[in-house]
Amino acid sequence: MNWYCDVAPDDPVHAPYHDDEYGVPVADDVVLFERLCLEVFQAGLSWKLILKKRPTLNAAFADFDPVKVAAFDDVDRTRLLADPGIIRNRLKVDATIENARRLLVLQREHGSFAAWIAAQHPLPKDQWVKRFRKTFKFMGGEVVGEFLMSIGYLPGAHREDCPAMGRIRHLDPPWMRAAVEAEPTP
């Protein structure tokens, strides 16, 4: 997604996400869940639309607290599908609620969503996609790939000459560590 480095810096909607979040390693389960859900909502739509709707999505989904979202019921589902501030797609809303429930299972089994992700690493993208499809709902290749790039588990978020890449490099994202570990020893 190297084109993002060209268009984002001058865009008031894209720039903050591009500069401060995209590709930055994340270990907080609430942030991870929000990022996963935003990618689900983005499927088939523009990322700019999702970034514009991010505040209303957060408000509608209890700031993406997985414990709260997992407790959503039919009343909440009806409320969400009537909310013009979000993406009112029944499949995406249902996937978000179900994914919160599945995330809670991962937390019980692995200590955290972040720990589950770390335990899978490193995998090639196609294996990541299979793992996410087996574990969560509404997981296509783009959803999984963008999610993992956004949290530092897959390369490609930024060009090498992008100033954001320079900042991320110092954070030692998992994809960089995997690349170093995979280098042949002389």
TrEMBL record:
User: Which PANTHER family does this UniProt record tie to the protein?
Assistant: DNA-3-METHYLADENINE GLYCOSYLASE 1, DNA-3-METHYLADENINE GLYCOSYLASE I
- Quote the protein name from its UniProt record: DNA-3-methyladenine glycosylase
For Zn(2+), which residues are the binding ones?
A: C5, H18
Cite the GO molecular-function annotations of the record. Answer: DNA-3-methyladenine glycosylase activity; metal ion binding
Q: Which SUPFAM superfamilies match?
A: DNA-glycosylase
User: Can you supply a Gene Ontology BP term from the record?
Assistant: base-excision repair
Q: Which Pfam families does this one have?
A: Adenine_glyco (PF03352)
User: Please, which domain of life does this record's source organism belong to?
Assistant: Bacteria
Q: Which UniProt keywords apply?
A: Metal-binding, Zinc
